[in-house]
Amino acid sequence: MSFKNFKVVPKMIFGRGSFAQLDEVLAEERKRDDDFVVFLVDDVHQGKPLEGRVPLKAQDQLIWVNVDEEPTTKQVDSLTEQVQAHAGKTPVSVVGLGGGSTMDLAKAVSLMLTNPGGSAMYQGWDLIKNPAVHHIGIPTLSGTGAEASRTAVLCGPERKLGLNSDYTVFDQIIMDPELIKDVPTDQWFYTGMDCYIHCIESLEGTYLNEFSKAYGEKSLDLCREVYIDDHPEKDDKLMMASFMGGMSIAYSQVGACHALSYGLSYVLGYHHGIGNCIAFDVLEEFYPEGVKEFRQMMDKHNITLPKGICKDLPDETIAKMVKVAKSLGPLWHNVYGDGWEDKVTDELLTGLYRRI
Ligand SMILES: NC(=O)c1ccc[n+]([C@@H]2O[C@H](COP(=O)([O-])OP(=O)(O)OC[C@H]3O[C@@H](n4cnc5c(N)ncnc54)[C@H](O)[C@@H]3O)[C@@H](O)[C@H]2O)c1
Ligand SMILES: [Fe+2]
């Protein structure tokens, strides 16, 4: 048996107002007068106060990114070309400012600036050959754990799969809880539940170990303070929960909910957060306590999920989702342990999807 050699984010700043330190952090990367920085910023912030706080110098490039659809390899390739065309040289840092989608775009662009060919070539594990350009993640929406992980999830021509590598990990993250205060309730809930579900899947899984347990348990406590206790410092707590949930799954694995959710997302286009919520709601047999508490949280925040989505879908559409869900071996291995292949049948998965 060999153990994972987990690359963690080497530098992080945490605290209210810490976004103001971005300029200082970048100053260390800017060595020559014409060195430039690329800011990939979620366009939800366009025209908002945050826009004026981006420490942009004359030679820098600010690109507003739209994440109405989750990131694609095509989008990454076109952003990379845009950056390459900016100054005829490589930027000294790529900053991603937004939710999981924007952070993943920044990770992917920083990798594609130093690795030849299109990003779809690198969907998989450890296919990246060259170190990325220095890259910084700054969440304005918390839950995915993308700030902590070694993947950048992309929808490609054939599948939704991340660029998983040690080089994908951010060189720096800045976690400023003030940046998430205006997220609309539904989105705050869906993305926050991504974190809650990471914890449940990690803690209930066969891959669990003391490292993942330490992060997962603490993250779960923080989620409860946020979504049940309505703690006055809930933004700080959710931001930390997201990071710790990411750390937990990085050294274990996600489970049944993420497997179903990937199918929903690939075939029907549901976004990660809401897709997870919809899938989790039919998984009481897998995660009885977790699903019960999740429903309490939904009630408390008046969240209603779409129902009956898959009930009347053609068999072949369900079969496509079943295929995606079934292909995620490590997730099912985490759920059932050895011999998962016999347990994860088409009937089981079809039955679950039909209830969604
Ligand atoms: N890399 C990883 O480890 C990892 C893990 C889980 C999920 N993901 C990926 O992350 C993506 C989902 O990320 P997400 O759930 O954070 O959502 P997101 O980044 O897709 O954003 C969701 C919505 O929230 C808006 N938003 C972001 N910040 C806001 C703010 N401060 N105020 C108001 N609106 C704001 C965005 O504009 C968008 O409309 C998916 O593509 C998923 O595949 C990656
Ligand atoms: Fe997730």
From TrEMBL:
Protein name (database record): 3-deoxy-alpha-D-manno-octulosonate 8-oxidase KdnB
Q: Where does the source fall among the domains of life?
A: Bacteria
> Which key words are in the record?
Oxidoreductase
InterPro entries, from UniProt?
ADH_Fe/GldA, ADH_Fe_C, Alcohol_dehydrogenase_Fe
Record flagged with keyword Cell inner membrane: no
Q: What is its EC number?
A: 1.1.3.48
Residue ranges the record marks as coiled coil: none
One Pfam family, short name please?
ADH_Fe_C
Q: Which GO terms describe its molecular function?
A: oxidoreductase activity
Q: Where is the Alcohol dehydrogenase iron-type/glycerol dehydrogenase GldA domain?
A: 11-177
The segment(s) forming the Fe-containing alcohol dehydrogenase-like C-terminal domain are 190-289
Q: Which organism is it from?
A: Corallincola platygyrae
